[in-house]
Structures are given as C-alpha cells and as structure tokens.
Inverse folding.
C-alpha cells in the first residue's frame, strides 16, 4: 500500500512531529509480539491503528503550524511540515481502509474469499437476470405493466454498465473509454430505477428532479474525466453521484413508507446505508487516500458487498410491491365485477317483473298468467285435483272514463284490485286480463266454492265507496276445469258465463255450464254489454 508517496507495509514510516515511526518496530515492541503469541493478522491490526493515531497527530500538527504561520526564514512552511500534513491525511485514510479489509479477513470470522471483480460481475449478472425474469413474467402472463417495462430497462442498463466495468482488465489498457461508459450506464440505470419507484409509489414530482440532477451530473463527470490527470477525481465525482442517488432512493422510500411500511422502511434503511458508505468513501478520498475502483481493498469489498445486498433487496422488494399492487387491482376488479353482477341481476329481476306484471295494478299480466294457468291445468290432470277460474268485468267502466277521466278510472282499477287481493288466498293467482277485465285462478277449488268467492267479491265491490266516483259494480263468470280440457275451451265457457251475467242486468255472478262450449271468444268484443 502506498502512503504519502512511499511504500508503507514492511517499513510503514510515518512522520509525526518530526519523528519517524516504524510499523515493524512498534509491532515487535508490543508486549505479546513475535514469538509470545501475536500473529501476523493481529500485528496488521495494530499497525493500522498506529497509522490512524499517528496520522491524526501529524495532520493536526501540520494544520496547527499552517494556521499559526510557522515558517522558515524564507517565509514558507518547512519540508517537515508539508510532509507531516500530507502523510497525516494519508495515514488516517489508509488506516481505516486496512481496518475494514482486516475485519473482512479476520481469522475470528468465517473464511469467505472476497474479490472485487467477482462482486462487480455478480452485480451485472443479477441485474440482467432481474431484467430477464421480468421479461419472461410479462410474456407468460400476457399482462403488460408500464412500471415493470421501465424497471426492466433500468436493470438492463445498470447490468450492462457493471459488466463493462468488470471487463476492464480484458482490454489490456489502464484507461479504456468503455470503463467510463460503464460508470455512466450504472448511474443512469440507478436514476431510471429511482424514477420508476417515484412513479410507482405515486410521487411523480421526483421524476423531473432526478432528470435535472442527471443532466447536471453527467456533464460534470465527463468534464472531470476529460480534464483530470488521474482517475482519483473521476472516482470521487462518480462515487458522489452514486451516493446522492441512493440517498434520494432512501428518502423516497421513507416518504412513501405508508404504502408498505415494513418493506419500504427496510429498503430505505439499506439504501441510506449504502448512500452513507459511498459518501464516507468520498470523504476518505478527500483526505488524500488514492482511490482505485476495482482494487481488492476493504472499502471496495465492503461497498460492493453492500451494493449487491441492496440490489437484491430493492429488486425483490419492488417485484413484491408490484405483485401486491396487482393483487389489489385484481381484488378491486373482482369487487367491481360483483357489484356489476348484482346490478345486472337487479336489472334482470326488474325486467322480468316488468315483463310479467301489469304496471298499473301490480298484478300478473295476461301472458304470464296464461303460462301459470297451463301449469296448474297440467298439475290438476296429473293429480286429479279441482281447479276453477273466475273472471270479472267492471260495469259501465267506459262511462267512468268519459265522465270522471282516465285518472279516476285508473284509481278505480287500483282500489278494486287491492280489495280483490284481500279476499284471495296465497295460492290463488290474480291477473289483469285486459282493460277492465280480471281473472282469478283458484287451485284445489271446485265450481261451487268458486261461486262463493265470486259472490263475496261482488258484495265487496258493491259496498266499496271510491272517492269522486262512488260505488262500482262488477259482473262475474265462473267455470270449473274439465279434465284434459284446452285452455281456449275453458276460457270460452267462462266468457259465456260472464256474458250471461251482463245480460242479466250486471252486478251478478253466473256459473258456466259444461255444455256451453260455443266459441264465444270469436265474436266481436263490443257485442258484450259493458
């Protein structure tokens, strides 16, 4: 390791207040050094701590002398001051770097071989794998989500950038433009991922901010690469850009954590930790430690390991949120479909009601009544049960409409049908046959019982006082069902009985005879008295 322009490792010379400190000498002078039990790793730890401690002393001493104006007779700082000031900064940074590396390689921890290039390759490979998984997922489900498509592109760009960085030694040159293109692609991929998160979490105002920041950061990085004489400034600028992006991602997750509290808080903590570590690397670089992006040192291994963990957590976390969002949308769609089905069922029930009932009186209409009569006729034939049909027609109803108006006529129909319902059983079927005619089907009822019901209805109608109209009477025809008789024949007989009631002076009840089978339904309706 280079420290202050000189090789520090075996010798480890540090200038502290004019004294030369030797790392090996200090290690050997330790009470348990050498043969008494201290190993090489423990010695390196002590050496690193020694670098940090005496580097801080040298840095502080040089800073104090510079501020107090201590100078030679020529008016400039002494060579010892400059050396102590510069090497002090490098001692602090190198000590921290060596401590991190020794921590990862400590014999008291699991022996895991860590390599920076392997970690970079893993970052690139896993980013591309995420992009491939999302592509296959969308193809299999045939469900295109804009957020997933944009996130897939972000992973593709970032993964390609990491692989370009990993391939640096393959080009055989220390400075290869592909490396800087890879760095730009990494940051662009992170920025695109941040924009996708912002849109997905419902914070679109972040997108123009990220776009503006990248429009500033990219030219600054390119200018640094073009103007700098070494890679050190480029690494500082690039690391700073990455730190800001991850800190912004942490702030975004924290700002929107209510959508998925546990997951977003964990993602925010990890993104913030990575952003903070990258910022710490920038600070170490500013202290004078020469930064090398792909060197196997403690800082790089720690950062790339943490970056790999963050990449996995962010990737799986985002996919889990997408799945959760999809399930929520699916549940909402199911609930909407259920509400729609309920509305359709209600509409169908309403249509069925309108198709089978009379809108004015609420009774069954003629079409539906005929179908129910046929069913009862079949049941009566099958079980040899009695069945009777009753028809009544309001007397002089045309005069009511002409004298009192159609609204009064409608009121008469409504009140008399309500009165008829009060005198019927639950199994009886009451329907409006047409105009002022009504029919009542009575299962398990013989002709004489039907005559009794008709007489009760006639008396109730006669006694009912209707406002603005007065009393309204009705004529009744009754007929019992004959086995295997057709509906037309049955209605013809009951119609003949009603005609007889009208001819007898109205407000009366007549029972159809079995022999009255003449086709009365075919004569003109106006021949029957109203």
């Amino acid at each position: 390791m280079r420290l202050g322009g000189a090789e520090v490792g075996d010798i480890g010379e540090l200038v502290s207040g004019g004294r030369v400190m030797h790392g090996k000498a200090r290690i050997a002078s330790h009470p348990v050094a050498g043969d008494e039990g201290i190993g090489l790793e423990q010695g390196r730890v002590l050496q690193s701590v020694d670098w940090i401690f005496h580097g801080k002393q040298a840095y502080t001493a040089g800073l104090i002398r510079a501020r107090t104006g201590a100078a030679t007779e020529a008016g400039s700082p002494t060579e010892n001051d400059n050396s102590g000031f510069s090497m002090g900064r490098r001692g602090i940074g190198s000590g921290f770097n060596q401590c991190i590396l020794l921590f990862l390689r400590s014999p008291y921890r699991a022996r895991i071989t860590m390599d920076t290039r392997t970690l970079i390759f893993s970052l690139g490979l896993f980013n591309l794998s995420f992009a491939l998984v999302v592509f296959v997922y969308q193809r299999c489900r045939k469900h295109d989500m804009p957020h997933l498509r944009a996130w897939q592109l972000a992973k593709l760009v970032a993964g390609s950038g990491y692989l370009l960085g990993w391939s640096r030694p393959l080009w055989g040159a220390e400075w290869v433009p592909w490396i800087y293109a890879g760095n730009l692609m990494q940051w662009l991929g992170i920025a695109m991922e941040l924009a996708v998160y912002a849109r997905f979490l419902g914070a679109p105002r972040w997108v123009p901010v990220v776009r503006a920041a990248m429009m500033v950061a990219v030219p600054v990085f390119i200018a640094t690469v073009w103007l700098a004489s070494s890679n050190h400034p480029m690494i500082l600028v690039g690391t700073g850009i990455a730190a800001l992006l991850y800190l912004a991602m942490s702030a975004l997750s924290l700002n929107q954590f209510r959508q998925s509290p546990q997951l977003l808080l964990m993602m925010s903590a990890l993104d913030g930790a990575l952003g903070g570590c990258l910022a710490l690397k920038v600070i170490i670089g500013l202290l004078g430690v020469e930064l090398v992006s792909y060197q196997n040192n403690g800082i790089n291994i720690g950062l790339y390991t943490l970056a790999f963990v963050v990449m996995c957590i962010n990737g799986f976390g985002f996919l889990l949120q997408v799945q959760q969002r999809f399930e929520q949308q699916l549940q909402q769609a199911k609930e909407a479909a259920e509400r729609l089905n309920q509305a359709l069922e209600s509409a169908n029930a309403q249509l069925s009601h309108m198709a089978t009932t009379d809108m004015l009186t609420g009774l069954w209409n003629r079409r539906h009544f005929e179908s129910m009569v046929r069913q009862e006729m079949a049941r009566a034939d099958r079980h040899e049960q009695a069945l009777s049909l009753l028809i009544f027609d309001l007397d002089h109803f045309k005069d009511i409409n002409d004298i009192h108006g159609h609204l009064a006529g409608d009121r008469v129909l409504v009140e008399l049908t309500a009165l008829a319902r009060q005198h019927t059983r639950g199994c009886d079927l009451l329907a409006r046959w047409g105009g002022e005619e009504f029919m009542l089907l009575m299962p398990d009822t013989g002709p004489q019982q039907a005559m009794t019901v008709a007489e009760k209805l006639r008396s109730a109608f006669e006694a009912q006082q209707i406002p603005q109209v007065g009393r309204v009477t009705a004529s009744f025809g009754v007929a019992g069902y004959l086995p295997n008789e057709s509906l037309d024949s049955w209605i013809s007989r009951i119609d003949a009985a009603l005609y007889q009631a009208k001819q007898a002076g109205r407000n009366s009840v007549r029972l159809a005879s079995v022999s009255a089978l003449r086709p009365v339904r075919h004569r003109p309706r106006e021949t029957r008295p109203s």
